[in-house]
Design brief:
The chain has helices spanning 11-74, 80-98, 104-173, and strands at 178-186, 201-208, 217-226, 232-233, 240-244, 251-255, 258-264, 269-276, 284-292, 295-304. By secondary structure, it is of the alpha+beta class.
Amino acid sequence: MEPNTTSGSSPESVKKKYLGILIGVTAVLVIILGYLIYVYFDQKSKMEEMEVVLTAEKDSLTNELSGLLYQYDTLKTNNDSLEFEMTIQKDKIKRLLAVQTSNAQKIRLYKKELSTLREVMKSYIKQIDSLNTKNIKLMAENQEVKSQLSSVKQNNKELTKIKKELSSKVEMASVLQAKDLSVVTLNSKGKPKTRITKIDVIKVCFILRENPIVAAGNKEIFIRIIRPDNVVLTTSADNLFELKTENKKETEKLVFSASRVVEYLNQDLEVCLFYKNDGQLIPGTYTVFLYAEGNEIGTSTFLLK
């Protein structure tokens, strides 16, 4: 029997039909593949661009962190608390520099951290400036105090010197002084003689000067008559009085020839002392020293033949 071709297409037409469908599907797949390839390379290009941007941002961030670390290193202060806080911030920067990342979210986080670190550093700069200003002020005040102290010490030194000078002047002013000192050698009849064989007594007269500063009252006066050979005329080796030394703090004992107690009333007072010749006289020039209250108050000389 002959095949029935009236109810359907021929095999060739079927083949052609399926071939057309296959070509259509293939064309669609090619288009889809082309689109996918385009999208892939487009995304790849964008990723590369993003990577370049992220790398640049990371490098920029690294440079900024390094610069910030350097700025922290340049901050100097003697405040231990502030120095400790700055050390903590520097350690934080070093930890950020040690992190290697290309993550955009982390980079944004580090940027925020960088901004915070900058603000913290600004506050440190203000604190250090404030401390430096206070230190400068304190140094100026300290210098002023030192200057004032030096001035006070100098004033005290000058006042001490003035006080010492005034004390010395007062002390000098409060010492009895004698004037018009005269020495006469007399015989037994009270007549002046200069020959040793005729002299009975040596008379020493003077005037105690008026002095309102000296305390009034009894004053003991001493005389020392020294021979030409430097021997002191005296009636006894026990005839001693105390003489103030140059520094006025110590005294030394000296032999005196004669002494007398007088009442001093702060007015000129005429006084005479006598030394009786006991055979110790020798020819030559004699020196007479006059003393009161431990001080030398007058001197004179006379000649015997």
